[in-house]
Amino acid sequence: MEHRIATIIFGALLAMSPFFIFDGYASHGGIQIADEEALLRDISLPSGESISVVFSSRAGGFWVDADCGGDCRDLWLTVSDGVSENTATITDNAVVKGQLVEGVAWLNLSNTGSDSLNIDIQASLPELNSLGNADSSSTRNSAVQANSFLSTSNLAETFAAKTTRGGIHDPSATWINATFNGLDSMYWLIDANISEVLELSLLHSSADVELRLLSGDDGNQVLASLSSQSNTSSSTAPQRIWNTTTDNHTWLEATTTTASSTFSARLAAHGSIDNWPATGEVNDVQELHEESATFYGLLSTGDEDVIMVNASGPHLWKLTSSSTTALDVNISAMVDGIWVPFLAFQGLQSDSTHYSDSSIWTPEATALLKISISSLSEETGIWSFEVMRTTFGDLDSTTDANGAIPMNIDNAMGDWDFIELKEGVSHSGWLSLPIYDGADTYLLNLEGWEESRYRIKLQLTADNTRIVVELIEMDWSSRTIISNSSTIIDDGIEGETTLEVGEGTHLLRIRSVELINGEGNWTWGDVNISPIPWTIEISSIQSEEGIEPWFKGEGFVSQASTGLLYFLGFLMLTPIIWVIWTNRIHSRRAAQLAGDKERLKTLRKMIAEGQVKQAISDLKLSLRTIAALDWEEGVETWGKANIRHRTVAVDLAVWKLAPEFSNKGGVPVLFGVHILKGTWQVAAVRFEVSAGEHWTVISTEPRFLSRGDEVFLDTLAEGSRTFLKVELEGNGTGLEVSMSGLVENKPVAAKHTGSIRLEEE
User: Architecture of domain 2-124 in CATH?
Assistant: First the structure.
């Protein structure tokens, strides 16, 4: 009700008339305004002027409290309904309360003094579209008809209505204006089937009041509560709570120790939100088709929400959060297949809006950005998180140009970009100084004959920053510079240089003077350092045409070339022949082992008989041999797996091994993977602990790279089958296995939900 009244009063003041009557009704939810705080504070009423506000009233109690900055002696305040007129008691404040009949009512304010009055108002009025005493019961009675409350499923509207005074709230909530009238409790029954989340706020009260959300038809369980111990202040921000609903019904209970207490509250019911992330979800990657996106979520006590977005390449990220409770936010990035922590921050406990914003840079090898959100409060809360990405790519791309000089011409053709030499065509890019991107290097291709010569002209424009551009004629056979020219922008914004070169491929480099001279005194990713934009125009003119070469090859040259090709072809086929022969040997042995089911039992029996070395050797040979079998046949050959997990893309299996198979005193296990769909790049398997200290991989057979609890399998083609023995070190008592990688440049992962206890072996 506060902003409805304040809005009407503010409009009346703009009329600048000695007495103004606004004849109309304030609709439910009030008038949408841009800045609620500005209208609630410092309402100016000039000397001798009056305001009368007309509203449609239900029968019931009312209360109005006007704050004049400590002195309301010059304020005349009344509330009337055509039957009776109630005049405010004037002290430091002006307070009026009483009863209204159903119909039209007036709120009247007059300044009887010689000075202007600045007024703040808080009130509880039985406005027609609000709920009140008549909608309540004095006891929790399941026979009471459930009340209908306004609801919304659009959290974006809720966050758009955020104000510095009111915090985050639903602009379409139901108002509750009630007076106890000798009662000490009142109850409103809410149909919980209409919502998943209830939002309750206490705005004003004339005396002490406590509001509680009670669960179930009998209302025995307290879901959440808020209270005011005395008369509220007009400058006090509303108290607000959010809570999930689980039962068919929920009760709103209001209690007081002051029989005549009056209060104003607001209740909204929120339905399902489509883009609320599942708690702890990490595999659902959000594709940013635009440069920004906003996510919304709900946090109950102990919950954690995880957002994952594609983040390929070096970008500047601005991360902005708003919430109804203080948040604990942790941000990490997957760089070269490894999760790297980047930023952790908490929403300010003292800030009622719980607003935070931060910025980070991600490096070139970044694939994913993960944002983990948890609540620092015991209350249910909602949050919004805006992710804004700024790309500082070169030549209209999202990637950064290579800044080094190529090692040779073949290296240049693979990893460097060509730039077009055409007059009137401009090219733009950035030097991202915060991430030490101090140079951009491009290739210039000039086609011609020997003795051809060209004159290249280059014009550079920058943002009044110190950068240098250089044209380089290269001798790729010796990786030396034949000639070069450059221009530097120091105090101006434009520079120009020319160079005469021969035919072939040459270089253009744009560099930061600060980083060249070692003046870049900042840490990597410093968001206070600005990237440098640059624009160039480059053109060429052929000054010497050169001589077109021509000769006819001799016959013996052609014959010798043919013989050489056959010889080289035979040499290239030799490794293939060796591979085919080796695979035939493994296939024959695999066929033999296929008839020997439960292979691990056989190996355990050999160990029990003292044939340890023979068993270890046999296992090492079987790892590759059984991989030649069909996957299911291979699994049966090993015996029943302790862990088996299959998805549409991959099939995983894990077997426990006897301690005698350990080479370094660790815990040995056998791991197998079958790729069912796609080619997995940057594939890795993680051996996680379910209890105790982390596992550490100390050896693999065959040998693979490992770090910590991960083994890196590199690239696994579709249909491939791989078995390896992994030796783990640690004091863990359980083992969980997961696998991750990139398929078609998109991250995928698979994890078995169960675990095995290794100490039993």
Answer: Sandwich (2.60)
